[in-house]
Design goal:
Layout lengths: L1 H37 L6 H24 L7 H4 L4 H35 L12 H5 L1 H29 L1
Helix pairs in contact: 1-2, 1-6, 2-6, 4-6
Family: Belongs to the TRAP transporter small permease family.
Subunit structure: The complex comprises the extracytoplasmic solute receptor protein and the two transmembrane proteins.
Organism: Agaribacter marinus
Length: 166
């Protein structure tokens, strides 16, 4: 369990740095877009496409960061009315569902999407990078969310066992 906790701490710190870096890059790209359009009179196509792809990555990695810090959407209005056991079961079910979604949809589906865009190779119109490089964030974020869900699930189970013994 300690190794898994250390892995999640490392991954989550890396996600924080990535999201921060992407946010800084998108600010620079948009500022350049505005400057080139209104001051130079010739809008930069590169900065517009770069900002679009950065926004996708910020959204995906930001979702992983939000889940880790438990600031994701939840229906606490209903769960607060449950008994303590009902709340524990709801949290467990929630983490199981997030884990299954991350594996089935984000990891498996994301890998299929990446492979689909590799053969035949699809290039972005302006940057001329493989679209698969943009889509690779989906399975990467899926793995990060799945690991976090697993840590939350194991923590909930350990806390439940400890509370029944004590």
């Amino acid at each position: 369990m300690r190794a898994l906790t250390n892995l999640t701490m490392f991954l989550n710190k890396a996600v924080e740095y990535l999201v921060s870096s992407f946010m800084g890059l998108i600010v620079v790209a948009i500022c350049w877009q505005v400057f080139s359009r209104y001051i130079l009179g010739s809008p930069s196509a590169i900065s517009g496409e770069l900002a679009r792809y950065l926004l996708i990555w910020i959204g995906l990695f930001g979702a992983a960061h939000g889940y880790r810090h438990r600031v994701h959407l939840s229906l606490s209005l209903f769960t607060e009315k449950f008994s303590e056991l009902g709340q524990k079961l709801t949290r467990l079910l929630s983490h199981v569902m997030v884990f299954c979604f991350a594996i089935a949809v984000m990891c498996v589906g994301g890998i299929k999407l990446v492979l689909l865009t590799l053969q035949p190779v699809q290039l972005s119109p302006v940057l001329e990078i493989k679209i698969a490089y943009v889509y690779v964030a989906i399975p990467v974020v899926g793995v990060i969310i799945a690991i976090n869900a697993l840590v939350f699930l194991l923590s909930e189970m350990r806390n439940s066992i400890a509370s029944t013994k004590g």
